[in-house]
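A favour, since you know our structure tokens better than I do. Would you make up a two-line entry for one protein for me to read? Write everything out right here, beneath this request.
=====
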Amino acid sequence: MAAPIYHLAPLSEWHSGRRDDVYTPARFAADGFIHCAATAESVLAVARDYFAAIEEPLLVARIEPDRLRARLVFEAPAPIAGGGTSHITPGAAFPHIYGALELEAVSGVAILVKRGGDFLWPGVFLPANAL
């Protein structure tokens, strides 16, 4: 069984991107894939780089790669203009999902708590439809 991967989204985007049993983020049309991270440390670094100024809750979705129908590729980072780069390390590969995310592949969701300029990893993940 493959280790989980993670996707970050403002809570409002998570809700607006859900249709039936799939989720498609707002940036999908521009990027052609869903940005993900492979470890808690990289998720928190991405959160700091791209969501430091967020005022609404920041959701983290835990995704089980073995349940994905869309193609999953680990490849070089694809930085988004205007974001930081502290999450990018030499030789790092990030998981990218080339298609919509089926909610059956999401094994849990949680809110990253923001403290000062940092985020804390959640202690508990809830079912995908809980938030």
Notes: The helical segments are 11-16, 28-31, 40-51. The domain at 5-120 is CATH 3.20.170.20 (ADP-ribosylation fold). The longest strand covers residues 106-115. The mean pLDDT is 89.
